[in-house]
Amino acid sequence: MQAPPQRGALIVVEGLDRAGKSSQCESLYQKLQQSGRAVKYLRFPDRTTAIGKMIDGYLRCQSHMDDHAIHLLFSANRWEVAHSLEEDIARGTTVIVDRYSYSGAVYSAAKMNPALSLEWAWTPEIGLPQPDLCLFLSISPEAAAQRGGFGVERYENAALQSRVRELFQTIFRLQQSGNIRTIDAGRSFEEVAQEVEISVLDCIAGLDAIGPLRRFQSITH
Ligand code: FDM
Ligand code: MG
């Protein structure tokens, strides 16, 4: 009998705006593909689905929504692909994800709505596939500003971003099993890309030790 194929890895790339997440994800995707691996690239929010279109309208300030309601839509936008994501992983496909539950929790908690704590924000993420590796692309506010500053979407302002920066550190501390690796994204594209690739290949090589795909748990554990 043939041994089942090794499962794919779930790789998440997180960071603030202008940290270079999307270009690094694309470069990583191409490198893994060229090396002959089965690989997919997802990003959240996925603005193409029905839920994603509601999120898109909200982010472009074309609609208003209660903070909890939009929060749950962001989470639902992950849940709607969770099943196919697990199937891909089981089939041996490595999945690269540009923003995930960490962004979900910290951007909502950064609004400082007293009725929307970080713990509340994390709750709908419980049970989603947990990344085997989360790369946090870290960039200073000054370097981010040099890369073109803020765009016009909701959340693209200095006060919110600085709270987001702190909350990322808080959530990473609370999610100790998260295998989070901080990467200095203030360096050249190539230097960052190299560290990203090495970290991902390391993770893939160590998948047997990790075992089956895990799921997110409560952050109070
Ligand atoms: N964002 C992203 C959230 O508020 N919650 C989430 O769950 C996710 C995935 O959406 F400001 C925020 C983060 C960012 C905005 O993301 C749009 P992109 O990566 O800039 O498209
Ligand atoms: Mg953006």
TrEMBL record:
Pathway note: Pyrimidine metabolism; dTTP biosynthesis
Alphabetical keyword list: ATP-binding, Kinase, Nucleotide biosynthesis, Nucleotide-binding, Transferase
Matches recorded under CDD domains: TMPK
Top-level enzyme category: transferase
GO cellular component: cytosol; nucleus
Domain Thymidylate kinase-like: start-end pairs: 13-196
GO biological-process terms attached to the record: dTDP biosynthetic process; dTTP biosynthetic process; dUDP biosynthetic process
A matching Pfam family: Thymidylate_kin
Ribosomal protein listed as a keyword: no
Keyword Transferase on entry: yes
Sample GO molecular function, one term: dTMP kinase activity
InterPro entries membership: P-loop_NTPase (IPR027417), Thymidylate_kin-like_dom (IPR039430), Thymidylate_kin_CS (IPR018095), Thymidylate_kinase (IPR018094)
EC code(s) of this entry: 2.7.4.9
Family: Belongs to the thymidylate kinase family.
Record's protein name: Thymidylate kinase
Species of origin: Aspergillus saccharolyticus JOP 1030-1
Phylogenetic lineage: Eukaryota, Fungi, Dikarya, Ascomycota, Pezizomycotina
